[in-house]
């Protein structure tokens, strides 16, 4: 009976993790402003796309993480429980004079309250380096 209860509660865990990742992405939107271009390349990698305009330089990162999912038999129900969530993200950093000035997210998620959750991996490494004071925002 405990396993059945656990499996029934499992669908609640995926949205909680996604909400946490969405909060990380939002935190990055504020805390990475001022990051130098070299530090951004160090922690986020080489962008998928770059563009220049009068407003500055734009670096874009596209991410499609693998869908999270669980499939397990539930004898009480007599079938199987399958929960999955798919999401995609595009993060665009605007750089002026070699420093991040703005960050924009264009994301889609199948889970409620997790709009930018797929964007978290792009900014997580940078946030970690900022927290460890290995890079600085100017």
Quick description:
This protein has 138 residues and is of the alpha+beta class. Helix content is 36%, strand content 35%. Strand 1 (49-53) and strand 2 (56-63) form a beta hairpin.
Distance between the termini: 56 Å
User: What is the multimeric organization of the chains shown?
Assistant: single chain
Q: How many domain units?
A: 1
Distinct helical segment count = 3
Low-confidence stretches: 69-76, 78-84
**H-E order:** HHEEEEEEH
Main sheet properties: 4 strands, antiparallel
In what order do the strands lie side by side in the largest sheet? Answer: 1-2-5-6
Amount of helix: 25-40%
Number of strands: 6
- The general outline is globular
Structural Rg: 18 Å
* Average pLDDT metric: 79
* Proportion of beta-strand residues: 25-35%
Keywords: Signal
Signal peptide: 1-19
Organism: Neoroseomonas eburnea
Protein name: Lipoprotein
Describe this protein with a few key phrases:
signal, alpha+beta, single chain, about 35% strand, globular, about 35% helix, Lipoprotein, about 140 residues, 6 strands, 4-stranded antiparallel β-sheet, 3 helices
Give a description of the structure:
With 138 residues, this protein is of the alpha+beta class. Helices cover 36% and strands 35% of the residues. The protein contains three helices and six strands. The strands form two sheets. Strands 1-2-5-6 form a four-stranded antiparallel beta sheet, covered by helices on one side. It has a two-stranded antiparallel sheet with strand order 3-4. The radius of gyration is 18 Å and the shape is globular. The termini are far apart. About 11% of the residues have low confidence.
